[in-house]
Amino acid sequence: MIGALGLMRERRFLPLFVTQFLGAFNDNLFKNAMIFFATYQIFNSVEDETRFSAIATGIFILPFFLFSALAGQLADTYDKAKIMRIIKAAEVLIMLVGAAGIFLKSLELMLVALVGMGIHSTFFGPIKYAILPQHLKQDDVLGGTGMVEAGTYIAILFGTIAGGVISPHAAAFAVVGVAILGWFASLQIPPAPPLTKLKLDYNIFRASYRLIYGTMHIRRLYLAIIAISVFWTIAAVLGVLFPPLVKNVFHAQKDVASVFLGIFSVGIAIGSVIINRMLKGHVSARYAVPSVLAMAAFVVDFYFAAKFWPVNSGPLLKTVHFIALPAAWHIVFDLAMIAITGGMFVVPLYAFLTTTVEKSQTARTVAANNIVNSGFMVVGSVGIFGITQIPGVSVEDAIWVVFLLCLASAWCAWRLYKAGDVPRTRDAHIPG
Questions:
Q1: For site-directed labelling of 64, which of 23, 24, 271, 317 has its Cα 20 to 30 A away?
Q2: Which residues contact 117 (CB under 8 A, 6 or more apart)?
Q3: Which tens digits make up the pLDDT trace of 209-221?
Q4: Whole-prediction pTM value?
């Protein structure tokens, strides 16, 4: 067993890590530059801001729902490294459209690029997890998964901060440059030849139905996927709420929203590393229930900190003035702990997905998970917008939705653990 950090010296892991890191950075640099541009320069009401944030989140997620089944089939049928290179080359073209949208200040072009990045991530996602058990030994898969998750969220941090602080023109050049670097990194990923040959089903609706049905009838996979999906619904809801919360509740500028998203990203990365150390490479949900219940407790504390926030007038606070407030450190601590416990909850479940089924089926398993995840996240994004439109329900009141979702995650994780969460060696089989 190689330590998680030791994997960074291995060619079978490092190029993949760099490629996915740059992709996650670019996603969030572009998405957050667009959302903050709209929130602070175009819209002037909490309703419009929340609506656009929800729309942008939903548009990015929709391709996961539509194309994940095809992405999983392709990843299990062809060399995963070659597919990655094609995907990263497409990212360069997508970001050229996004850059044009930034220069022209065209939300329409930006949304087109956001859809393109959603499609890019849809096809990349199954591969980045499915390639791990093919390149790594089984007792290194949890560590590799943890490093991928940690790297993803550190990249989200940098991308989020960059999206909030650099100028629009700088963002336009950056997204194209990072896409090119990601393509170069993908050229170094070792071959990952297919372990099976499938007849591709290009009917995305039929393929999605068959894939979900073929995966979800396996009880342990069903419970793991539902638990992961509820967790990502929490992340989607928080992503929708953060910009209007920062501006209208915490009375702060967009750079503080970047700090919030950054804290959440770093926290999940820290949680990923902590749980890998605690489990010592053994894939298990034994800590999932206490992790997500602790998360629920910090969500409640975050709600009360927001409800009784002391500043509600005067100019919007810059980061330096925000963190100078004693109450701000209470907010920062709660956000960090929500994210850390969230990372401890979700990372073993991803490792569980890739170690329960045969290696030839891992991409389709992750793809099925992505379809269900995306469905939950779209419902969560639209639902939280609807809830904030109810008379008398404030943005901070909507935080209670996150608390309820934490309890739902805990229930799923408890059922998984009670069902016997230690995977028998790749005994689950997905039809087709």
A1: 271
A2: 26, 27, 30, 31, 60, 91, 94, 95, 98
A3: 888 877 777 777 8
A4: 0.71
